[in-house]
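SAMPLE LOG
Freezer: B-3
Tube label: C17
Construct: single chain, 199 aa
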Amino acid sequence: MYQYLTGKLAEKTPSRVTIDANGIGYELIVPLSTSQALPHVGTHIKLLTHFIVREDHHQLYGFLKEDERELFRYLISVSGIGPKLAMTVLSGLGVPDLKHAIVDGAVPVLSAISGIGKKTAERIIIELREKIIVDDSQTVRLSKHLADESLVEDSIQALVALGYRKQNAKAAIQKVLSMNESGKKIKLEEVIRQSLKYV
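STRUCTURE (predicted):
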């Protein structure tokens, strides 16, 4: 129904923005990648949109780039994934890494995102793998260790044994692994030690 919105950026938070279009304030839920790339409040902007209508709720979702919106639409087509969870997934990894995780079948990477269990991660991969096109000229392939299931699982178990909640442990480990941009192999002890900063 709505292809895009243009207007003045009136308000901005990490997950929501308000666009003033001809005196009407439109609230849009946005992924972290869009929020971080937006200019200062008061600037004129254009956001691509996806409008979801429910019996008790109408909501606009906004995206700075077409690949963000496309991936969002793919995600909500997967059984068991609604708009809120799709936004969490997009915000948790970002478009390039999320595409690679799906194409590479990296279940531990996806299941490290809050709200995504192993079965849901597997379902995302099965249903979307053939639809995703990865452009290696624009993005760096996921480091091999990100798909190392044993490293992730062992790290989670270690943090749980220390008394931390499993979901918090997953999120912390994902953060540590995603920060290892050099791609060098990282040891279990190092993952645990760094993860303790984020749980």
